[in-house]
Structure formats: structure tokens, C-alpha cells
Amino acid sequence: MDGTNARARTGEVDPREAADRLWALASPVTPMAIRAIATLRVADHLKDGPRTAAELGASVGVDPEGLARVLGYLVREGLFTRDGDRFSLTEVGAALRSDHPHSRLGWFTADGAHGRADLCLADLAEALRSGESAYSLRFDGSTFWADLSDDPALSRSFDELMASRMADLARTLVGLYDWDALEHLVDVGGGDGTLMRALLRRAPRLRGTVVDLAGPVALAGEAFRAAGVADRADAVEGDFFEPLPVHGDAYLLCWVLHDWDDDAAVEILRRCAEAAGVGGRVLVAEYGDEGRKGRGNRVSELDLRMLAYFNGRERDTRALSDLASKAGLRLVWSEEENGAALLEFTPKGE
């Protein structure tokens, strides 16, 4: 019996094909080549048409011969085309332009918060051995958040990425809850206020406050003024491991808890519960249970990043409820749409 035909009938994979598949999955060449081109902002120099490696090298300040080799490799991967000695972007490669409507540039640049942090994945094996975060191992014992605090450029790149992501998520979250039923919502770790602005547009009677670190708070204040909602919104500097500086009737944690291990997440929830007090509520937005079925690979990938960056994790509704219980809260309501879940907690005993 022919071995190839027999494997085809039984659904077995040819061992050589399996090994080749493993090689394709494990090779770092393509992702690192893409990230090099992103860091150099090469795609922005091709928006007006084809250029040679010599022209591109002069524009971005690198060796043109080496650049031609990287671009030549990425032609094979479908990011560029080549006509003679001139390179052009494909539709896939165009997503590395800064002005692309769905640009991925900021996620890949080695001088941005996300692309830089991804380098720690090379230390994942040692992180699993030691229990430390891979980020801390890679960057001399520092933490992601400490580096953002120390480097305004890194912080700005992170805020821009989060604002872009939150703008997409906000379109779902605004319809998941009766925001007009609240008087004063405090968005804890609310960044530049992107979500809060969307909620204020949806709920004209709502007042809102963003609590975050100094950099995001400054951006949020400017954004509220520019949006004409400064009479209903403000931004206050604070630390969610300390007593929260603002009293509201509801506290929102939107994709915050996944950045932290269980002990830290409980402490954040406890601070929100203390601030909310009797009659208050704590709202938590994370990826939902149903979303994991439809977007399992994406959520699983994010879970590994949370592990590597922070020793954090993605959690389902049950895990979030268990953490909330330790903080003196109980789940009273939840809703999910488009992979995003919103959970409402109130103090136990109410």
C-alpha cells in the first residue's frame, strides 16, 4: 500500500509536511523583518509610488544593500512587489503606513511600547522557570508600567494604541448598558478618555471622571475640552492601588484587570468597591465567554502577551466573579456582544 495514499485516507499528516509546518510557525525571520521595516517607517516612503532600495535607504538612513535584501524577502511574503530595482507596497504591506485606516504600524515598531514589549517573548522559557514576567527579565528588572512612566515617548505610543483600540470597543460597550441610569461614572484606568467621551455622547445626563496616571490624565482633560464635554467630564490623577480620589455611583474597569495577576486584580477591585460604597456598583469590561469561542486564537494570543508582559491573564466570567468575591463583590448582571462582556458587581449583602 502506498504510504502517501494511506495517510490521505486516514487524515494523517506527512511527517515532512508536519516538520515544515513547524518550521514555518517557529521561524522568527518574517515577523522580525516586518518589525524592522515598521521601525524604519519604510512604508510611509512608498505611499507616492515605487522607489529603489537606494532611494529608500537614503530616506530612512540605512544601508541600501541590506535593505534591498530585507525587502526582497518580504516580496516573497506578500508585503511588497518588485519591478526591476523598484519596490511597491501590496495591500498587506500598506497596513504598515501610518495613514492607513487600519494601520498596524504602532503595534510593530521596536521604539514603541507594544513592539518593544514583544521582544520579551524571547525570554518566555526563563519566565516560566522563574515565575518572573518575561518583560522584567528582558528589561533589567523593570516593569512595563515603570518604563511608560519614565519615557514620555513610550507612554505616548501606548496611549495612542489604546485610544485606537478603545474607539472600536466603545461602539459595542455604549449599547450594552443603560448608562443614563447612572449619575456619575468613574472610569478607573480610563486612559485618554476615549470611552468616556463615547458614553457621554450616548448618555446626555451622565457625568464622568477618568482616573489614571499623569500622562493619560492630561490627554483626557484636553480631549474633554476639545469635545465640548468639559462641563460634564474631568480627569484626575490617581493610583488604583490606593484609595480612589473621586466618589461616584459606579466605577468602570475596562480591560484593566487582565494586565494584573490575581492578587493585584483583587486589590484593584477592592479599591473600587470601597469607593463605590453601599448602593454603588463596579462594572468590569473584558473579553467574554462567547467571544472566546469565536475569537479563541486572538484571545489566546493576548493571554500569552499578558503572561509575558505582566504575569497577567485573560479571565472568563467565572474567574472574574471569583476575584470580585474576594474583594467583597457579587455578580448581579452581565451582557455580551461582539466578543466583549460587561459585568456588573455590587457589594455583598445588598
Automatic annotation (TrEMBL):
Keywords: Methyltransferase, S-adenosyl-L-methionine, Transferase. One of its GO terms (biological process) is methylation. The active site is at H258. It comes from the Bacteria. Residues 123-329 form the O-methyltransferase C-terminal domain. PROSITE patterns: SAM_OMT_II. GO terms for molecular function: O-methyltransferase activity; protein dimerization activity. The keyword Repeat does not apply. It comes from Nocardiopsis alba. Pfam families: Dimerisation, Methyltransf_2. The keyword Heme does not apply. Residues 29-96 form the O-methyltransferase dimerisation domain. This is Carminomycin 4-O-methyltransferase.
